Amino acid sequence: xxxIGHPGNPGDTRTTxxxxxxxxxxxxxxxxxPDHEAAAPLRVMAIVDATQRLLRARPIxxxxxxxxxxxxGWNIPNGALAQALTAALAATDIDHIAGRLAxxxxxxxxxxxxxxxxxxLTADLVIAADGRNSIVREAxxxxxxxxDYPQTALAVNxxxxxxxxxxxxxxxxxxxxxxxxxxxxxRASLVWVMAPDKAEALERMTDEELASAIERQSHALLGRIxxxxxxSFWPMTSIMADSYARRRIALVGEAAHVFPPIGAQGFxxxxxxISALADAVAGRADPxxxxxxxxxxxxxxxxxxxxxxxxxxxxxxxxxxxxxxxxLRGLGLYALERIGPLRRAMMRQGLARSVEH
Length: 357
Fold this sequence. Notes:
Layout: E1 2-4, E2 15-19, H1 20-27, E3 40-42, E4 44-49, E5 60-63, E6 73-77, H2 78-90, E7 95-97, E8 101-105, E9 111-115, E10 120-123, E11 126-128, H3 135-140, E12 144-160, E13 167-173, E14 176-183, E15 187-194, H4 196-203, H5 207-217, E16 225-227, E17 232-241, E18 245-246, E19 249-251, E20 257-258, H6 266-281, H7 290-319, H8 323-338, H9 340-351
Parallel strand pairs: 1-7, 4-13, 11-19
Antiparallel strand pairs: 2-6, 3-6, 4-5, 8-9, 9-10, 12-15, 12-16, 12-17, 13-14, 14-15, 17-20, 18-19
Helix pairs in contact: 6-7, 8-9
């Protein structure tokens, strides 16, 4: 087995919220996220309707202990996660080529690969994990469906004046969610989804001005705010591949799906892709055969498409000025608050695993 690609950036300060199922999957690889000094637990998830609309939902809290868990997951900087993955890779017999693909030629019996240094390889199965602009996906002839939202997301880490108490808080606004996620100590990560013109204004601000804007937007929930990392802005986009696999090529991660940063779906979906692919090829003499890849595509299509629909519906319900849609959103959150079995079922579904109460 060969891995082609440069190691992740250890200085990447953006964070990933790894949900419980992903924590278990990484533990099976020898990566213990809960014991990592850079990771913080997410024991409570709170939703606050911060819109100024006529129909507003009541605040709601989801507690991990309701479904028998110590935490829903753990939030960790991408650089620290990349280092942990690289260390785990070094302990395997997987060959790692720190380069880039320059060419991909799918065939009936094998796939030809050309590296940027000119080296040529062949493979029975190629796993495309090369991101939203995947050249491997393009070579396989797999088309995508794309939707661009009128939103931009800001990611930045913060120093905070009050203890977050291991609560992840998502404020719903008319322009999108504003989500504060715990980091160790008095620190938190922020993903703020907003209109593009608002993002342009924030990008021009000094750190002190941006910290004040974040403090106001968060209603001073975490006290005094200070900026603790570089800022990252990116346009909100949804991309879905029309197929998960074709011609001895299987797609995982952003080569297969790109979602807005709502509900911590991105990397957690990627790990479920990898798990399903491992199951589909296990015990097969030819892992790139059509039956193996068909099994993989069937296993992943519903999960990815249903979660895309969920994220899209939630995002559109915030952007929409239609009173009936606002009412349905408020009614749904009210039901989750009041009906315990429904709330617990939704929490289990969000974690993509069955947890006994």
